[in-house]
Structure formats: C-alpha cells, structure tokens
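hi support,

uploading two proteins for the ticket. first:
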Amino acid sequence: MSKELPAPVPRLTVITLGVADIRASIAFYDALGFSRRLKATGEAVAFYDTGGPVLALYPWDLLAADARLPDNPRPSTFRGVTLAWNCASREEVDAVLAFALGKGAKLLKAAHESDYGGYSGYFADPDGHPWEVVVAPGIEVGEDRRVHLAE
C-alpha cells in the first residue's frame, strides 16, 4: 500500500533572466546595488540577493536550450512579465527611478499616480526586462527590505 505524500508548499525562490551579454548585465545589476552571491560561478551564471527571491542572470540562448524553448526569434515586445521594486514612499520611487537611469536603465514610463492609489514608474534593464518601481496601498516595505502584504 503506497502512502500519499503531502502536497508541496508553494514558493517562488528564483527568477532567472535570459541576457544577451552576461558581463554587461552583471555590471548593471552590480551598479544597482544588488548583492552578488556565489561569485565562483564567474560569468556562467550570476546570482543576486534581492531580499526575497533570488535574481539569476543566465545567457539567453543557454536558458532557452535548458527549458527546451526556441532561442529565436527573441521577443522585442512585451513578454507578459514585469519585475517590481516596491518602495516605502513616493520619494523613494522617484529616487530609485533616477538611480536606475543613472546606471544605464531605459525609462519606460515616468512615475505617476496610479488609479489604485499608488505611485509607480517603469524602467528597462539592458535586455529590456521591465521593472516597475512602486509604492502601493496594502503593501509595506519593512526594515528588512521585504514586502509585507496586508491581510
């Protein structure tokens, strides 16, 4: 008689971005101030502590091959995914956007009041991955840099 295993606990642990030039992407994310870990991987893959899920950078073609997906054509339009940098205040949103642009990010949308009572703007990393920089009602950024959601 087989014993049924308990359902696994869902969790998001790593977000991996496919990048065209890993050296340039490492320089960009280093410049943003994310803390790189497992540096022994060199330029094969880069891992960053984000205060939540790990951010990984991996060459686009190798990531596609690993997932058994076609490498081409690479999308030049919206991919249906954004990353977010939640902030504690509107002033922090403005500061983060200015900081990212100063490190080579491209502005996608200037910070603005949102229809849900928040404040946000968007930048793109060197490979066009969009990041929302946002302060939103019900989402608090704690002293631990982690996001805390209201019940």
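and the second one:
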Amino acid sequence: MNATVAEAIAMRDVFISETARLLDDNPRLALVLADISAGEGRFAQAGVDHPDRVINVGIREQLMVGVAGGLALAGLRPIAHSYAPFLVERAFEQVKLDFGHQGTSGILVSVGASYDWSEGGYTHFSPRDVALFDTIPGWTVHVPGHPDEVTGPLRAAADSDESVYIRLSNRRNAEAHASPDGKLTVLKRGGQATVVAVGPMLDNVLAATADLDVTIAYAATVRPFDTQTLRELAGTTADTIALVEPYLAGTSDHIVNAALTDRPHRLLSLGVGREDLHRFGTPDDHDSWHGLDPAGIRASLSKFLSV
C-alpha cells in the first residue's frame, strides 16, 4: 500500500530544499513559480536571496512557462513548478512553442501526479501529462517513486542542457530503488511474465505479485525508456509483458511495441482509465477504481496470465 499524503509530502520538500541549494550554487539557474510553493520555507528565502532569479508570476501558469522559455533564450537554466494539470495541460501550448519550437530547454517539475489531491476535483487531475510529452521530441521524463529518488535527477537536470520533466507525487514506495543511470532495476525474477512498475506503483505491484512466478522491473526514468533491458527481460518470459503506470493506461505502449517489433509479444497495459468518474474520494479510492490497488492489479494479471 502506498504511504499516506502526510508522509509522502517529503518528495516535494526534497525538491524545494534542493532547488534552494542549487540556486545558491549555480548562478545560471532560475526558478519561475505561479504562486504554488512561492511562500514556502526555502523558496521564500531563495526569493529574498536571489530576487533576479526567483520569479513569481502569480496565478498565470501559461505566463510562467512562457517566462521560463524566455529565460532559457537569454541563457539561463529555468525551473518552472506547479501542479501537473496547470504546468503541463493548461500551459501545453507554451511548452510546445516556447521550448519545443524555439529549441530551448528547461526543467519542469510538477506535483499532484494523476489524482494526489483528489478532493480538489477533476481540475487537479493530470493522468495525461506524460502522454503529452511524447508529442514533443527530446524530453527526459522522471517519475520518482520515493523522496530519495528526487535529488539525483534534479541535480543532473540543473547541470545539463536537456529538456527535463520531473513528475513528483504524494504517493511513494517504502524504499528507493531507482537506478542512477535511468535503467530498469530488476527486483525479482520469474518465468511467466515481465512486469514493469513505474514510480509509485511499485509497492502495489509487489504486493499483487508476491506469490507469482514473474519478473519485476522498476522504472523511475520513463523517457528515454530502457528498452535494452526490457528486451533482455522479456526474452526470458516468452515476451509476455505487463506495464503498470501511474498515469494514463497505455501511455508507453508505443515504446514497448516498437522495442519488440521484431518479436511476437503480449502486452497488458494498466494505468489510469480514460473515463471521467465524477468522483472525489481519496487517492487510495482512485487506485481501486482504476484497478491500480494490489487487488486490482492481481486480478488483471491473473486473467492475463491465464490466457
């Protein structure tokens, strides 16, 4: 079972503290906010310490991303941060134009994931964000499943000239497992199927497959996807693959299918459904409704493996 929101908030806390340190150490780095987190602890102090490189544009997310793109054109390395639906879906035109079309790069860091703040309603849900990034070439996408998996990708992004999206969540696994090189981490080996768990889905997958003869691989970096290791693992399980993602079901199907295009294979895709459920509930409720709790994952896998 995923940890509670109170415990999981540490993922964003790590991001805030580390970004403040990076702003102190790297004069090229800039932070653009749209009110979210602007007054919190280290960010508030960073605004005092670096008023020319910490910019709060108010509740104007499209402007936030546009300003970040402009800072990139001026030679700075921008970080833009807000809830996922505001940062990616609401401001997607600016991501497409001010970064993609202009040939600039920056770091986008979201919170809220697919339905972390479920009481906020559908305006705060964002299961489509990673699928949207697949429409713009060149983005690296990290989906940490534990607070300890945030710092490494953030530091690497700050030192690079790549376009990077870091998808933070209030959901978390009990332990960190991410590989520092972005490769799949193999946690268990079996013979029936290869099950790839993305980010905070891992603990639910482990609970669902505890007594199944399957290989479990963990991914915290999903773009680029480690297709080399996937091919190697799939070859040991008769090219039978299950993919469990914390965002829109089927988001990574095209990558898996392309990686195995020369081999017959079977693919089960589990993730957030496309239907608007018109429900609030808790994040655990939404896991259950979308079949992403241990019982739902187990039922889907058992049916898939029995065919």
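thanks. also noticed: The CA atoms of residues 204 and 223 lie 22 Å apart.
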